[in-house]
């Protein structure tokens, strides 16, 4: 698979990463054996970046990834996150976003144990803590880089000004935010412009619109009772019905090309720049193969133009994040 440089600090990854969040819940039943097989198959197919976070589970996602990578650790880039919510060592949430230096130091040690590794390749501040200057958080993160516990740094869902301040305190390799045909905020809010000006890479999560762009979600009532998408306004029945009209436009273009809508949507993200690495999440090997095929199917100018005409970010019904998701800088 094609490799892409992420930022100017030396980090290089596969053009496509694998988001692991759904492997331990969030979108349906858990199957550790299939998730592990999916991780192994991803490595065989050339995917080398695996994205997790301490809050996924909590902790169970990092532990699953750590087990799956036993004997394969040196072949991959492990990306994890801290501070999305304050937690104790039992996994009990004790507060909101936490960027205090002492919490940073405790979190990295906990993630190293959970992942069964001696270093984290890419470590993100998961959500910005409005109570702590980002310079203090990234000062502590810079110390972890110097100590060899972390190789590269990132920040998730931050505004342009915060990205600049964090990067000045300790060089960032990556900014992670939601990005898809369904979520294009970063094109208009200055985030993409800022990371490109500063030479920072961009990692796009939910590039398939949390599964919406694959056509897998046609009705809110079809979502299981524990499905995380139930809390997102875009998946409320009225909004979902409006958004299906947009999906049908994408599916028409995909059908004319003889490919699936999800594959087309993922190829679109990959086409937005060689400094962008999407990290679609999947628990199943079949879906993984479909996603990897998108990485080898470049889109021509006519198809890109047709997609741009079919979907305008302003037409999407419903907010992309839940009201409970504190720490996203809007």
TrEMBL record:
Pfam families reported in the protein's UniProt record: Aldo_ket_red
Keyword Oxidoreductase included in the entry's annotation: yes
Organism name: Actinoallomurus bryophytorum
Annotated PROSITE patterns: PROKAR_LIPOPROTEIN
Listed name of the protein: Aryl-alcohol dehydrogenase-like predicted oxidoreductase
Domain NADP-dependent oxidoreductase: 16-310
Cellular component, GO annotation: cytoplasm
Lineage start: Bacteria, Bacillati, Actinomycetota, Actinomycetes, Streptosporangiales
InterPro entries from the UniProt entry: Aldo-Keto_reductase, NAD(P)_OxRdtase_dom_sf, NADP_OxRdtase_dom
Alphabetic keyword roster: Oxidoreductase
Sample GO molecular function, one term: oxidoreductase activity
Domain of life: Bacteria
């Amino acid at each position: 698979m094609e490799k892409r440089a992420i930022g100017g600090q030396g980090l290089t990854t596969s053009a496509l990463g694998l988001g692991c969040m759904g492997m331990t819940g969030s979108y349906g039943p858990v199957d550790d054996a299939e998730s592990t097989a999916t991780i192994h198959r991803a490595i065989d197919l050339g995917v080398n970046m695996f994205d997790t976070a301490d809050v996924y589970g909590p902790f169970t996602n990092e532990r699953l990834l750590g087990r799956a990578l036993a004997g394969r650790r040196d072949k991959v880039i492990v990306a994890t996150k801290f501070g999305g919510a304050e937690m104790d060592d039992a996994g009990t949430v004790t507060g909101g976003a936490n960027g205090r230096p002492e919490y940073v130091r405790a979190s990295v040690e906990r993630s190293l144990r959970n992942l069964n590794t001696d270093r984290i390749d890419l470590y993100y501040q998961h959500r910005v803590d409005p109570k702590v200057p980002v310079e203090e958080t990234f000062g502590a993160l810079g110390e972890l880089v110097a100590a060899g516990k972390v190789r590269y740094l990132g920040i998730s869902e931050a505004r342009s000004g915060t990205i600049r301040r964090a990067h000045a305190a300790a060089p960032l390799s990556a900014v992670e935010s939601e990005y898809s045909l369904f979520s294009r905020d970063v094109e208009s809010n200055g985030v993409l412009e800022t990371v490109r000006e500063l030479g920072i890479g961009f990692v796009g999560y939910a590039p398939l619109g949390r599964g919406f762009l694959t056509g897998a979600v046609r009705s809110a009532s079809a979502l299981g009772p524990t499905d995380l998408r139930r809390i997102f306004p875009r998946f409320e029945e009225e909004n979902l019905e409006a958004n299906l009209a947009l999906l049908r436009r994408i599916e028409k273009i995909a059908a004319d090309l003889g490919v699936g809508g999800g594959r087309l949507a993922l190829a679109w993200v990959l086409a937005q720049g060689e400094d962008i690495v999407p990290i679609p999440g999947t628990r199943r090997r079949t879906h993984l193969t479909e996603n990897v095929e998108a990485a080898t199917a470049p889109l021509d100018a006519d198809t890109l133009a047709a997609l741009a005409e079919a979907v305008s970010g302003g037409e999407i019904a419903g907010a992309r994040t839940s009201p409970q998701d504190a720490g996203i800088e809007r």
